[in-house]
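Key idea: predict the complex, not the pieces.
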Amino acid sequence: MVISADGLRPDVYLRSDALGLKVPNLRRLVSSGAFAEAVTSVYPSTTYPAHATIVTGTLPRKHGIYSHLASLDPTEKARPWSWFARAMNVPAMWDVARASGRKSAAVGWPVSAGAAIDYNIPEIWNPALPDPYQDFETVARHSTPHLFEEVVRALGPLMAHSMEPPADQAPALQADRLRVEAALFLWRRYRPDLLLLHLIVYDHQAHHYGPLARESLAAVEQTDSEIGKVWDTALQEGPVTLVVLSDHGFVPVSHEAAPLVRLSEEGLFARTGDGKLRLKRLGAIHAGGSFAIYWLEEPKAEDRRRLERAVTGLESTGAIAEVVDRGKLERLGADPDAELILEAAPNYYFSDRFQGPEVRESESDRGTHGKLPSTPGLEASLVAVGPGIATGKNLGRVELTQIARMLAQQIGLATDILASDAEPLDLS
Ligand SMILES: [Zn+2]
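Result:
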C-alpha cells in the first residue's frame, strides 16, 4: 500500500513536537519502520513529473512527463494536464505488476488515466469546469469500466454527501475522505498486490495558506488520521507493507511574478484584432517556483534577442534566482524541450498572467513548489513499515528515483522490467 500525501514535508514527522503537530500515526510509522530525513525530488518539483518518477524510478527526461500541463500554449484557456499514462516512455510499477501476474489498484494517482491498472480511479478532470473536485463524471469515464459506479454504490451516503459538501469545508478534504474510502473498498473487495493512493488536502492548503500555517498543519493532522485509518484497516486483513511518501515539499511565498507580461511586451506573443493574445513562436508552462519557456518553431535571430531582453528585464525585477539553461536541464534530467527554465527567487512564485504588473504581492498563494529539488524545504517524505523492514531505521537523504525499485522488491517483483538505474534502497 502506497499513500502519497501530496507536498508533505519530512519535518512533519521529524519535528512534529516543535511544530505542535499531533500526528500519532506518522510517529508510529517512523518508530516501527524505516524513514528518510529527506527525499530529493525532481525538476520541476511538481506533482505530475514527481509521481511519474515515483512509479518508474526514472527522471522526467527519461519517463517523459516534464511538467504538470500537457499543453505548451499559455494563451489556451483551459489547458489539459498530463493525465494519461500513455505519455510515459518507460514501464511503471503497474506494468511490472501486470507482467508478473499481480493485480494493482490506484485511486487519484497522477498520470494514471488509461494505465494497465486492474482497478483504477485516476486523477482527471475537465479543465473547463470551475471546480475539479466535483467533476466525478470525467473521473468515472476514465476509470476501469463499471468500477466507479461500483464504488459509488458501496460508499453510499458518504458519496452523496461529498457530491454536495458543506460550504465551510475545503473540497480537497472531502476529496481525500472519498479517496480513502474508495481505496479501502478496493482493498477489501479485490485485495490487489499493489495499491496506490494519492491524498491532496495538504498541498491544497499549503498553496493557499503557506507550508506551516495553522490551516496547513490541520491538513497534516487530517492526513495523519486518514493514514491511520488505512493502516489499521489493512492490518486487520493480514500483513501489509505500508509506504507513506510525498512528491515534493513546500516553501513560503509572498510575491507573484508574471513572466508572460514581459514576454508579450517584447512581442513574443501576437495580439489579434480583438486585443487578445495569441501564441506566436513561444510556448510557456508555469510551475509555481519555476517557469519553462519553449521555442515552438525555429527562432530567428531577432526572436532570440527579444527573449534575451525579456529575461534580462525579468532578472532586474528581483523575481529570478537563476536562469536554468539547456546544459543544466540535461544534468538535472529535466525537460529536453525547454529553451530555459526561470527559477524563482526566495519568496516568489510564477503565474501565467498576461496583464497587470510584472511583479505584485501575492493575492492568493502563500506557498509553492516547483523550484530546484535542492531548495531547502522542497524535500519530499518517505516512511515504510512492514515485514522485513527494519524498525526505526534512518535512511538519511535518498532520491525519489530510488522508490520504484524498492516498491517492486517489497512486493517480490522482478525489478529489471523498470528502466530505473537508481541505487537500491536497503530498508532491512
Ligand atoms: Zn504535489
